[in-house]
Structures are given as C-alpha cells and as structure tokens.
Fold each of these.
Amino acid sequence: LEREFTFKHSSVKWKGVPIMVANMDTTGTFQMAEAVYKHKIFTCIHKYYTLVDWVAFAEVVNSKSDLDDSIFNYVAVSSGSKDSDLENLQSILSHMPQINFICLDVANGYTEHFVSFVVRVRLLYPDKVIIAGSVVTREMTEELLIKGADIIKVGIGPGSVCTTRKKTGVGYPQLSAIIECADAAHGLNGHILCDGGCSVPGDFGKAFGGGSDFIMSGGMFSGHTESGGKNVEIDGKYFKEFYGMSSSTAMEKHSGGVATYRTSEGKRVLIPYKGSVVNTILDILGGLRSTCTYVGSDKLKHLSKRTTFIRVTQQLNEVYGSSEVN
Ligand code: 5GP
C-alpha cells in the first residue's frame, strides 16, 4: 500500500501510505500524528496550533522512546489564506525547517485571492510540498498546479459533518470530481487528494480506483482516543464530539461565534467512542489490500488502472439491516 512520490514543483520525495488525517481540530491533532505515522499515514495538523504548541510537540517527540524525527515526514502545517494564517505558518516553519509539507486549505478554492496566495507561498517556499484546495473541476486543478501547488485538494460538500450542499446548494459528486481532477492533474505531473466522503474502508478503494493519489478523511478518524473534541457520557455510554470546521461549534471556539453575514456550513455530532485509532487503521488498510486483490492490482499505484465502475441503484444487501451485532 505504500507509494513513492516526486512532486511537480518541490524536490521533496515522499514514501508512505497515501492516506491523510484531515486538518480538523477534532482529528488533525499531534496525538493522532504520533499514532498514525507508525503506519506511515500522514496527518495534516490543524491550523489552530501555534509555534509554542509545535515546539512542545517537538520536545515530546524527543522525549518519547517510541517516537523519532521521521514523524516530521508525516505531518503538514495547515494555513488558511488570511495574513494572520500566513504569519503563523511562517513562524512555525522558520523554527521547524524539517517539515516539508504545507496544507493551504480554504472552503472555496475558486477565488483570485486564493490563487495569488498559492503563488505567494510558493515563492516563499520553493522546496516545500504545497497541498492546495478545495476545488472540484479540471480547470481550477490545472490553474492551482500551474501557479505552484503540488497536490490539489478535491471536494466541495462531500464531508460527513459538512452542510454546504444543504445551506448553499453548491457541491459536486465526489467520485466524479476525483475522476475529472485526477485526469487534469496527471496530465500536468501533479497529484490530487480526495478530501471527504470516505465513510467505510471500501470508499478508500473507490477513491484510489477513481485516480486519487492521496485520500484525506475526517470522520473515519473521529471518535478515537487520539482525536480532539470533548468526551461525553450519556446513560453510561461514551461518545466523542466531532464537528465541522464551519459549524457554529467551531466558529464559537475559534472566531467568537458565527458572524451575522454568514451561516454555519457544518454540524456537530457525537461519535460512539471507538478506542485507539490503530483499530480503524488496520480496518482501512486490510480493506484496501483486499480491494487490490479482488481487482488484480499488485500495488496501490496500479489500482486505478484495474478499476471499472458500474452504476448501481443499491450496493448493499440490507435484508438484516445495516448494522452488525457485536
Ligand atoms: P469526512 O472525511 O469526514 O467525510 O470529510 C472531511 C472533510 O470535510 C474535511 O477534510 C474538510 O474538507 C471538510 N469539512 C470539515 N468541516 C467542514 C465544515 O464545517 N463544512 C464543510 N463544508 N466541510 C467541512
């Protein structure tokens, strides 16, 4: 399941399992990175950590015998497109030059402001790998790649706690977006990251099969010991909070509330506590290996060449319901 990449602009080479934990404050935590990098899985660390938090994290990595500096190959620093975000990014990277990945994440990648922001960050960091998005169509995939991004983040509206499609009517079917954007990116030696919409291990096989080079997931990594969010107990059962980064919960936490000119585009849910994230990782990787075997792909890299999609009206036999008795 490991792949080795060389990128369009950056000279950095990367090898690992091309799955990324989402840069949401409930999933993209340092504790998550500590657990998942041992399986060569990547974490886009959320943008609300400051330099002080990163320095503390580096000290934790130094002090724990089961961690080593290779963890920095499996993390990205995230930033929005505001000047204050860029200042935070620059202060972190100036102290921690060993970090090679930057994740430039905005809800709507279709603005001139975002394109010029990507150009600016590329000029500042010619050697870093820049992930940029989100977009869902070929022309904007090409535009961002040409302007300096290495990996295009693809997905508007597919997320498990996203309400953009309900609130704005805007969105694009995620598999169609992947197929279209992968085709555009690969023609320019670029790569794409499918962001959102994977809710079971089989979805990862479909996204890779559709041509995605990397897959980002939030919901699959929520509800674990290593996830952020409050622990909640209801009638003796344990839950963990998970919410969208544009939900009113997140806006109250980070921006002092929902500004009157906008509405929330995300929701808050309670996830039954899932234990350590290791269980989920093994489930995803086990599923993916079997996907490869079923379709006759000797490695993940070849999966999209071996995949055929068939349009269906129903995927699962649910005669006994959709949940399983443990
Ligand atoms: P999931 O893997 O849970 O289906 O989707 C995770 C992705 O949903 C994130 O990586 C991010 O792109 C997107 N997302 C996170 N929070 C929100 C939100 O509040 N609103 C919207 N529209 N998308 C969100």
Amino acid sequence: MIVTRFAPSPTGYIHIGNVRSAIYPYLLAHGSHGKMILRIEDTDRARYVEGATELIEDTLKWLGLDWDEGPIVGGPSAPYFQSERQAIYHEWARRLIVEGRAYADPTPPEQIEEYRRQCNEQHIPFRYRDYRPENPPEWQPGLPLRLLTIPKEYSWHDEVMGDMHTGPEVLDDIILIKKDGFPTYNFAHIVDDAAMGVTHVMRGVEYLSSTPNYLALYEAFGLERPKLISLPHILAPQGNKKLGKRDGAKSVTEYRDDGVLPEAMLNYLACLGWNDGTEQEIYTKDELIHSFSVDRIQSSGARYDETKLYWYNGQWIRRIFTEQGVDALYERTTGFWPEVAENYDEEYRKKVLSIIYDRLKTLSDLRSMTEFFFMDPTINLDVIVKNKFLKKLSESEIENLLKITIQKLSSIEDWNSTRLQDVLNDLLTETGKKPAELFGLIRISVSFAPFSPALHLTLDVLGKERTLARLNAVARSI
Ligand code: GLU
C-alpha cells in the first residue's frame, strides 16, 4: 500500500508556494487506495508559531485534503507531533550509538566556527568529520549527537529528478540530536517515515542535496529506502527564484477570504507543474486523483501566475452554477455581499447572482459589482457627460432619450427579460441611436457603476418601479 505524508513545520501560515507538497501526496495516496499521514514537525522550538498547526489543519480541510492519520484523527503511529516523540528518537539514537554509528560531539560551537573560518580562508569546504574527536565522551544531555559517516559514493533514483550520483565528499557527520535534546529534521524525519510506514517521500527539491546523508542514515539503520520524489520549486512571478513569503506569496486562507473557491485553488495548484498529457484544464478532485501520476510531474520549476488562478476560479464559479444550480453557488457567497444586501431577501440576491455569476473572478467581486442592485446609486452627471459615447450627445438629446425610454418602459405590463429585450430593441430603431449610446445611457442611469450585466437582465432584476424611479431621478437632475 502506498503511504505518503505531508510534514509541515508550524512556523506560520501555509502559503501558495508550499501547499503543493500536501496536494501531490494526497493525490498519489488516494489514487491507489493508500493513505496520507499528516505529521507536524515542531522540533525547532525557536521557529514555532502559536496557532500555526490549526492554520495548517484549516487550510488542508478547506482544500478537501483530509488526512488518514495525524492530529485530530489519530492513528496507529501516534503521536503525530514530533515534539511528543522525543522518547522514540532517543531510543533510535541509542541503537546507532550501540552499533558505533553515532557519537557525542564535545566541540564547543565557537571552536566549530573557528574550524569553519579556517576552511573558508583556505577555500576548502568545511566538514565536521575532518575534525571528529578521537575519543568522544559518552552521550549525555547537553551534548549534540552526530552520525559517524562512512565516506562512500551513493546512487539513487529520484522519481522526478532522475538518476542521481554523489561522491563521498558530500557526506558529513550530521547532527542527529541537538544539545537541547530535540532531534534535527534530518534525523527525526528518517525515524518517523520508517516508524510510520511511509513508502513515498514527497517534498521540496531543497532537500535533494542532503539526500546522501539520509541514505547514509537508512543504511545505518538497515532500512529499505522509500521512493524519493523531489518537487521542483514554484517560482515567483518575476525572476528565477522560489516563490516565498518575501515575494508576497499569500497564504491559502487569504485567497479563501478573497472568494477563491477550494476547487479552483486545488485545480490550479495541482496543474502547476503537472499535466496528464491531455489538453484538459478543469479537473474535479476525483478527476485529479484518477489522473495524477508522479512520472508526469515536471522536473523544472513552474511559475506562479495569480491571473491564471483567478481564471480557474471564474471557470469554477460558472461550473458550480451551471452544474449544481444557483442555490449551490449562493451557499458559497455568504460573507461576500455588500452590506446593503442584508436588507434584501435570499430570492432577490439569488436573482442578482444568476445574472452576474459569469463575470465574477472571485466571490468578493460581488461587493463592488452588485451594490447598485441594493441601493439607489448617487447621481453623478459627470459620468454621463464624460462617457466616450455619450459626450457627443447634447443635453436636450439626452433628456429626450430618457423621456422616450421612460414612456416606453412605463407601458410594459409583463416586465420580464424577454419582453425587455424586445422593447429595448424597438427603442433602438425608434431613436436611431447606437446601442453604446442608448443602452449606455440607460445602464449608467440605473447603476452609475463601471460594470453591469446585460441591460435587459439588469432591468428585469431591478424591477419596473425601481428602474423608472432611477431614470426619472436622472431626467430630473439634468
Ligand atoms: N518540515 C519540513 C518542512 O516543512 C518537511 C520536509 C519534508 O516533507 O520532509 O519543510
């Protein structure tokens, strides 16, 4: 059975550049009836951020990436917080000591710094093992524990990066347990992956250069190597560097709060650096699970493109509306309406949503785009006078057009979009004006908004009374 894991460190929010390390293990596990473990790597107490674990859990849940073992759900390898697994690491460490593969490091940090400085001066790489003490003391609290490396060559296969080979020079006596008693990432993840039965280790490519040391550890423990899968970086929009918090990489939850749908986020990120060889762009989670395969992950970095994410979001908004109906989309819009919408019932808000959904990039667009449906706009004649189509018309022409429109619309008894479309077209013929002029004038008069849905739909939703009241108000103020 395939067992994958997502092993974040609770050092802050999950940003857009690192959540893919959760998506791919999820897809791989679920595509083969395997399981995904969530493990919280919280041994670096200096970088620990209060509340970060909850944020990670919320992000995964929102994206629909539930874990089969881990915090909250538990599992046979509990605990899933590394900070609670101290005894396990110490027990594994003792096994290495007994076999002569780990030793206590008595060198004061200042001395190590001095060695490093000397190496720098001579332009040679610093390796602790070149200064390894001949008779190390017994390991005790307060002393770091190091791996005793056997210098040799390593070859391995990375499922994304291909065949790799390194010489003995890259190996060093890495620290396994720090002097505070906590394990290093290097040691803890090897122990945990083995103890938890992880078969496929998927993580960022930044760990590739340390892999020979991990191979040395697998060997020292007599463990079978798991499959190693390095995920290339997601690149910042500009330049050639990894997308990070410093480049303004937003958190996943920020996008959620802006009205990005989880389906769109999952779809976009899964397809960032992976494809199934077809032209398909829109995938449901189930389709992703079904289509995903490690061998189609690109080995080069993929560039993050927010515009594309919004494109996916627009596609998903439309898809939910057309496939699941207005009620399903409406349910997602809670909290995204302008405040004034509260005075209106759901029925009316759903009507507004039905005519505007296909223009939304995020659900929060509802705030600015729909306000005029819920409150009379402030009349600003400048908007009419300066409009590129309307500025050619004289004041009396505008007055006249409004008068004819009001008359014609007043006479409609069955106020609905089809009837409105006919009447508006008749008005075009009658006045001899271009749509940009006549419809532009009506649109501005009822909305004073930079954008509105098709005119007949907008008027239909606004209703006869409100439409005429707004047109009259403008006519009066000219
Ligand atoms: N805790 C490591 C990180 O957040 C995880 C690396 C791994 O997946 O092994 O980068």
